[in-house]
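Practice problem: predict the structure.
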Amino acid sequence: MSSIFKKFANDDEQPSSFEFSSENKKRAYQIIKQYPKNYKESCIMPFLTLAQNQSGGWIPKKAMEYISSFLNVSEMRVLELATFYSMYNLSPIGKFHIEVCTTTPCMLRGAEKILEKCEKNLNLKNGNISDSKQFSISEVECLGACVNAPVAKIGSHYYEDLSEEIMTDLLERLKSGKKIEKGSQINRRGSEPTNKSS
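Answer:
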């Protein structure tokens, strides 16, 4: 799963500073209160998520330095977590960041074909961003919606029960600026069986 999003953005793309917004600072202090005082490292992942959301879907180096200083933990510990988990991006992503789960349940239900469909439809290889900065694609580990496999995440929303045809339709709608419905694409409620017997 090679991806430019797991490599640091070039220096010319990196901001010169980072600080949580006032809203995120309040949230950060709320997060800290959820953990015992001796376990500040437990706050790193929620802080990385705050920083990524504030930065448009990626985590600049300065954000990691800021988190390290804010929590008084080593920069290496922040870096270890940011580089280990596929949900964190270290370089800018497209406006529509498409993450296709290819872990076993999704793979068994056709995720590889869905990933190929995304690459072909967008003329874009997995792990890259389009020249227009509109689209980026990543193959990711489990998104945690296995029962409705195959699954993709676009931005912060899940699209479940996908097929090649459904994925093509979603991509065409995104390209033309039309709204797409999140959740099950076959109108399944929760994890109910697809073939219900009366």
